[in-house]
Each structure stands twice: as C-alpha cells, then as structure tokens.
Amino acid sequence: MASSRNTTITAIRILYLLLLCVLQAQVRLCFAAQVYVVYMGSRGSDDPDEILRQNHQILTDIHGGSGEKAEESHLYSYRHGFRGFAAKLTEDQASEMAKMPGVVSVFPNERRKLHTTHSWDFMGLVGEETMEIPGYSTKNQVNVVIGFIDTG
Asked: Tens of pLDDT along 115-151?
C-alpha cells in the first residue's frame, strides 16, 4: 500500500514538473516578441485603408499566412511624414522583414527619456541670481517650471 502511494506521489510530482516546463516555454514565447518599427521610406498612398491593407499583408507574410496573428501583432501605422508601422515581432521575424522588398529598415522601438541639457542657459536663467524684468515683480516668479518639448 505504501509503495503504491509513493508511486502516485512521484507520478504527481513528475506531472507537476512537466506542467511547469510547458508553462515556462509558453511564457518565453509570449515575451520573446518586442515592439519593432518597420520603416518603409517616404510617404506612399494617402488612403489610410490602403496603407493598413499593405501593412497587414506584410505582417501576414511574416506570420506564415495567418491574418489573425498579423492583426494581433500590428500596433500602429505611421502615415504622416513617412511610411511604416509598429508591430510586435520576434528577433527572427524582424530580421526576415528587413529583407523584404519595400522595407528600408527594421529597428527596435526604444523608450526614450526626455532630458534637458542647456535650457537654463538658453533662457538666461544661470545660477541662483534674481532676474529683474522692468515693470514686473519677481516675487511671484519663484517655483515656476517652464518646459519646452521638441519632438524633432
């Protein structure tokens, strides 16, 4: 009886470990994809439906003909200024896409941190000195944040 119970417990442990291995493999597949920007040169068609159709076709080819996977991976179509799109791709898919006709380059979408380098000098706010503006009180000018956003 004890031998049968030990065998059952061992079988359950093995099954549990197998399940964990399968689950870990699935998680790796899910997180292997990252966001890439596919740059396709200067603007093409002005018709947003045509642009989306072309982008979807390229993604369908990359996903082995699966329109559903192509739709899931598509994140954004760039229509103003240049032609391209953002999509979730694996590294292999991105490399394969870079070789496709009409694709200029494929690069990972990186989150950029905004920073200020010389804004204080540019605005004439150097050091702790008080800036006097004729006709205006400087008493209300403390703790004021002025920001410029230059998107390039």
From this structure: 666 666 666 665 555 556 666 655 555 666 667 666 6
- Which residues, including other chains, have CB under 8 Å from residue 69's CB and lie 6 or more apart? 59, 63
Asked if residue 26 lies in contact with residue 19, where contact means CB atoms within 8 angstroms, the answer is no
Backbone angles phi, psi at 130, to 5 degrees: -85, 135
Q: Which residue has the tokens 């103003």?
A: 80
Q: At what angle do helices 91-98 and 48-62 cross, to 10 degrees?
A: 120
Q: Which two tokens stand for residue 13?
A: 């442990």
pTM for this structure? 0.55
- 81 CB-near residues (< 8 Å, 6+ apart): 43
Neighbouring-strand partners of residue 105:
39
pLDDT tens, residue by residue, 30-44: 557 899 999 988 766
